[in-house]
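Q: What would this chain look like folded?
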Amino acid sequence: MKLDELALQIQNMRKRVALLQRQSEQQNTQEDIELVTEVLKEIHLALEELQIANEDLQQQNEELSNAQQALIAQGQRYQELFEEVPDAYFVTDTKGLIQEANSAATTLLNVSKSFLLGQLLEIYVLEKEIIAFHLKLNHLRDHAKFPDWKMQEWEVNLRPRNKTPIIAAVKLVAIRNQQGKLVGLRWILRDISESKRTQSKLQWAEQAMRQALAKEREFSELKSRLLTITSHEFRTPLATIHSSAELLEYYRHLWSDERQNTHLRRIQKSVMHMTQLLNDVLVLSQDETSKLEFNPTPLNLGEFCRDLLEELEQSDRSQHAIVFSAECQCTSANLDAKLLRQILSNLFSNCLKYSPIGSTVKFSVTTANDQAIFQTQDSGIGIPPSDIEHIFEPFHRASNADNIPGMGLGMSIVKQAVDLHGGEIFVESAIDAGTTFTVILPFSTNLHV
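A: My prediction, written as structure tokens:
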């Protein structure tokens, strides 16, 4: 029974008692007794109904108390769960004004809960992302009428108080009333900076592994090509050595000294050619296995270039006119002698190889501003424009050099040696007009004595 029903029943009973009282004043004694009896019955009945109503009220009060305790317990449990969530948990209005925040949220942003409440979440977003953050919230509010809008996920860069910025994964859930209207937002934020760094490291490791595998495949192909080309290139000088040695063995007693010397020079030239091939292969192999080292020492460039030029002139047998010039302002230069020999011998040998007999080949060296400048110039067949960008690749040979012996390793070795010096190399060429190479090498300060 409800309280208003009980009040109505009591009012009706009072009216009934008052009516019986008026009637008793107008009746005789016997009638008074009957009236009083009737009144007592009415009162007894009313008391019974009041007792039942009281029991109903007690039961309802007990149920109400139990419901209130259940609500309190549920609220406490919700608050415990709210606080125990390991991720930062915010409840905001539709504009992002913070209404609730758990302990993880205060830890994430490094501020107290009392300071968080009533603040806009956007004040912790990096300045460069605030506009994008606004656009996302506006987009969500504009599409709030669509019931399918339940949860959104994205990433945002946050700026905790007195801490370095972090990357946070955002999960945004809509809060709707019974009519389905958007009334608030639930935010779950998780710091994923470390996982992003780990992911970046894994990607880097994966990329490094792919590069290593590609390098290994390239090296395997390189060794195969090297074996094939080397075998082919060695056949010609070996055949020359074999035939000249055989002829000398059987006919030297019948030949003049000049004819014997001709075959001896052929043997010497073939040996020098094979030596150059072996040197190229050795340098390439050392570079591929990361054993090619840079060991600069003080050098007298004028003397170094003259000695090297004298060796190359002997192999040329005066078939070309060689012009050498040196303008060295310093007496010593800090360069790697072994690598410099590879650079200059390959460049100058190419000048002799690709120039017609009787033509002029120029070689110069100058020093200025703590660097050496070497230049070779010939009037040979030149390099086609389509080949110039590939001349420093291993085994690449110009399309107009098919009839000239070579492995296509020389220029690759030159480029590697120049790079180890931290220098630069430039080429200018025209078909049938010659080629000019310019090498600039800075003097090193890390000497190996």
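The first strand starts at residue 88 and ends at 92.
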